[in-house]
Design brief:
Blueprint lengths: L7 H4 L15 E3 L10 H13 L12 H14 L8 E4 L2 H12 L5 E4 L5 H9 L3 E4 L3 E3 L2 E3 L2 H7 L4 E7 L11 H13 L3 E5 L21 H4 L2 E5 L13 E5 L2 H7 L4 H4 L4 H13 L1 H25 L13 E5 L9 H8 L2 E5 L10 E5 L4 H16 L2
Parallel strand pairs: 1-12, 3-4, 3-7, 7-8, 8-9
Antiparallel strand pairs: 2-10, 5-6, 9-10, 11-13, 12-13
Helix pairs in contact: 2-11, 3-11, 4-5, 12-14
The structure holds pyridoxal-5'-phosphate (PLP).
Length: 386
């Protein structure tokens, strides 16, 4: 498919949450779905499965193929040598995060969150009655960084868990080996567990460096780490529900599995096979998407500079989400509300990602250039009309 071809009218026919949550004149730019159709091999499989009318329970645990493919992929792409015995399949990473928070800390224990951070993680801490210690990312040399001294200074005897999202959502930072090692050293010094959410790892741009799986840093830190991944972001499979969990040690696995399998959720045969096909047969599709997304990122940056120089953006190294600082616009209200009302564009609201999200929005640029331009033009017009 030529990603450029997608028109607003076509995109609006999508049945999912993204295009239906807001009024029909609003352009959605929030949830992390791409507007592009999935790769042909996945479409062919789903059509075939539907034609045969075969949608039974997955049920048993004997089909480990998606787990085997994940382990092979981690080795071939990232040099992370893991056994598929230490990997399991689930339906949903967010559900996995809720489980991890439940088993690695008690109510009122503390979880360290590098804010802004993917908001369901904050919601999970709130829902489960765990306290959050916010460690704001800092802007350094045109990139977002973790302040490790500040992070370590926050740790108390009630701190049990570090949340790592790498590549980071919403900043798009890809943390370096040195940074990840600093993170690991702190976890080891203070006996903390780590949740590593690496769902965006296949979406690095040409200037994005290298993805390093956190648990690949060494056995000591792997012992304390649970890693989540999936093909959901990279292959646009949010609707088919399949996630992967890697246990860095038996201790981590035992804790995780102390929650009943019924609560951990079932399996999804369509999601599992679609994920396997994505990882085995769709690398050309992904390469083409990445070229297009990088052009979109650069185009968006240029247009922001020309049309809305007061909106600041540190170019993201990975993923199709841009974290836009609207402080200098002095809107006097949450920019999400302003742009929804005045531009009829629905972004993700910054404050949901933590206190540092005030005056920010998260823009999803995984769409055709014409739809991206329409969003940017609407934004510029709304700003100029104030
Ligand atoms: C960092 C991160 N983790 C998890 C998810 C969602 O994963 P799942 O759909 O498997 O719950 C997203 C989706 O945007 C994400 O950005």
């Amino acid at each position: 498919m030529n990603f450029n071809d997608l028109t607003l009218d076509e995109a609006r026919r999508s049945p999912g949450n993204k295009w239906n949550r807001f009024d029909s004149d609003v352009i959605p730019s929030w949830v992390a779905d791409m507007d592009f159709p999935v790769a042909k091999p996945i479409r062919d499989f789903i059509i075939d499965q539907g034609m045969r009318g075969d949608l039974k329970y997955t049920g048993d645990t004997s089909d480990t193929s998606v787990v085997d493919v994940f382990a092979e992929r981690m080795l071939s792409k990232y040099g992370w040598n893991i056994s598929s015995q230490d990997v399991d399949q689930m339906i949903d990473i967010v559900q996995g995060i809720y489980i991890a928070i439940s088993v690695f800390c008690e109510p009122n224990d503390e979880v360290i969150i590098n804010t802004p951070m993917y908001f369901p993680i904050l919601q999970a801490c709130r829902d489960l009655g765990r306290r959050m210690l916010f460690n704001p990312l800092v802007k350094q040399k045109n990139r977002w960084e973790i302040d490790f001294d500040q992070l370590e200074a926050k740790i108390t005897e009630r701190t049990k868990l570090l949340m790592l999202v790498n590549p980071h959502n919403p900043s798009g930072r890809v943390f370096t080996r040195t940074e990840l090692q600093q993170f690991a050293d702190i976890a080891l010094r203070h006996n903390l567990y780590v949740v590593a959410d690496e769902i965006h790892c296949d979406l690095l741009f040409s200037d994005g460096g290298t993805h390093i799986p956190f648990a690949s840093l060494g056995k000591d830190i792997a012992n304390r780490t649970v890693t989540f991944n999936s093909a959901t972001k990279s292959h646009n499979l949010g609707g088919v529900r399949c996630a992967i969990v890697h246990f860095g040690s038996d201790d981590v696995r035992k804790r995780f599995e102390s929650i009943s399998p019924r609560l951990r959720g079932g399996r999804n045969v369509v999601g599992n096979i679609a994920t396997r096909i994505a990882w085995q047969q769709c690398s050309d599709w992904l390469s083409n998407v990445m070229i297009y997304l990088e052009e979109n990122r650069n185009h968006m940056q240029r247009q922001l500079n020309i049309l809305m120089p007061d909106i600041k953006h540190i170019p993201n190294q990975a993923t199709f989400l841009a974290w836009l600082d609207c402080s200098a616009l002095n809107l006097g209200e949450d920019p999400f509300a302003f742009f929804l009302r005045e531009a009829r564009v629905a972004f993700s609201a910054g404050p949901t990602f933590g206190p540092e999200g005030e005056n920010h929005i998260r823009l999803n640029f995984a769409t055709s250039r014409q739809i991206l331009d329409e969003k940017l033009n609407r934004m510029a017009h709304a700003i100029n009309q104030r």
